[in-house]
Specification:
elongated, Arc Repressor Mutant, subunit A, single chain, disordered N terminus, Tetracycline Repressor, domain 2
Length: about 200
């Protein structure tokens, strides 16, 4: 979990209690947005769920948008960290598969993260350039192709297609808890590997 260590207006480091309270407010916000959407989150509701006053919430965050942005950043950091750890432990040829498995697996284990990310992007409180979405996977695909001694001029296309596949798998898992997203991820891995090889 990301816990900001920003200095306050007086230049001092936040105390352990202040960092814990800020983290608690972020966690509560993530849960509320995941369960009720952006429009269902209010400063009063966040304060009530965190067991603090609205004034206490405003001490840490100047607005609802700022809290949602912090919760989004924390959620995205956890996802990126999980994927990065999977990539770091994989051979370059296996990194596209590791990417898919890590993305699908993390989002399966943290279904609230999907709604948090979606709601933050939809509300406009999250900056997310399109290239940030497909760029890292395209680089992983190019690296895998080079490690296999094949070139791919279509890494961007493959990354966009696989990103859509991951989204579809994750959404289907949310809609149907019995859906086998791990098996679907393996089929997506097999498709991507065959496309990289040709």
């Amino acid at each position: 979990m990301v816990v900001a260590r920003k200095r306050d207006d007086e230049g001092r480091e936040p105390t352990i209690t202040e960092r814990a309270r800020r983290s608690q407010i972020i966690d509560v916000t993530r849960g509320i947005v995941a369960d009720h959407g952006y429009s269902g989150a209010s400063l009063a509701g966040i304060a009530r769920a965190a067991g603090v006053t609205k004034a206490a919430v405003l001490y840490y965050f100047p607005s609802k948008a700022a809290i949602v942005e912090a919760a989004y950043a924390d959620t995205l950091h956890a996802l990126v960290s999980a994927v990065a750890a999977a990539l770091d432990s994989a051979d370059p040829k296996e990194r596209p598969a590791a990417y898919i498995r890590a993305m699908v697996g993390h989002l399966r284990e943290h279904p609230g993260s999907v709604r948090m990310i979606t709601e933050a992007m939809r509300s406009g409180d999250a900056d997310h350039a399109r290239e940030e979405r497909w760029g890292p996977l395209a680089a992983v695909i190019e690296e895998a192709a080079a490690a296999q001694g094949v070139g791919t001029a279509h890494a961007r296309d493959l990354a966009v297609i696989v990103g859509g596949g991951i989204d579809g798998i994750v959404i289907e898992q949310l809609e149907d808890p019995d859906y086998d997203s791990a098996a679907a991820a393996e089929r997506l891995v097999a498709m991507l590997e065959s496309m990289i090889a040709h």
